[in-house]
User: Fold this.
Amino acid sequence: MLEHGGRIQQAAQRYGIPQEDWLDLSTGINPLGWPVPPLPPACWQRLPEPDDGLVEAASRYYGCNSLLVVAGSQAAIQALPSLRLPCRVGLLAPTYAEHAQAWARNGHRVAQFPLTEIEAMLDQLDVLVLVNPNNPTGQRVSAEMLRAWQHRLATRGGWLVVDEAFMDATPEHSLAPQVGAEGLVVLRSLGKFFGLAGARVGFVLAWPELLVQLSEALGPWTVAHPARYAARLALADATWQALARQRLLRDSARLAELLAHHALPPVGGTALFQQVECERALSVQNELAKMGILVRRFDAPPSLRFGLPGAEGEWQRLEAALKKI
Ligand SMILES: Cc1ncc(COP(=O)(O)O)c(C=O)c1O
Assistant:
């Protein structure tokens, strides 16, 4: 099992601080997510139906009508590698670790390298998997560059898989509207920007034959009725989306400034987190945790990822803690 952010119960036990007293900045989840309304009882009582309007809402939101709803993009990350015979797969280093693990588990030969080496490595790969913008570094590759790589791969029957879990605040950089032809797969999540991580809803955008194979591999009713209901409303709420985009971009810049001001200048980030490289990562994480603030640590290179505080009181709390360390 790989490590993930959001393990508040574990932190509560380890540091002897009650769960409700923690400020959890260990994930890239919007702390002021889409407000879920009370759900009709039928959501709990009836099986979800495929023609409930969710696919149409998602098609409009992503600008793509070849998509499949999945139980979080994680479900697709795990299932996709089983749809290809063993081949050569390239990924960034560092990146969201579940991708490499899933491809390796399915017998593929996995190589990881920095962004600067992709161009040179591409002709030796059958599948290139990128998280764009990358988690945890925030590095972003332009849509033009990705399209060029995808064409090179597709001429040999190869795939480009782009995980856009953190793309919602900058939709102008998304490849979603370009999906349709064989060889391009885009993964999206409702867990980050919409803050609906617990609902477990994501989408795979790809050419129709791949979606049929994936759908058969995953089976019926993979996404629960309450989750489908909330996801449909969230995807259609353009007013909330526009405000959230503005606020997240502003708050992420505020977080970068706050960290820089306390000798932790970020090396990268997205609208939903900032990444700080520092040799003292372990001790800074520990000092913050003693004050009930949870951040995510990475080892190679030693770094910390800070998610966004939500309410003003949380910003003050982070600032006070940073001052002390
Ligand atoms: C880059 C990236 N992709 C995918 C996921 C999985 O998200 P979900 O399964 O909630 O859609 C995560 C979760 O942290 C992530 O960071």
In short: The chain is about 40% helix and 15% strand.
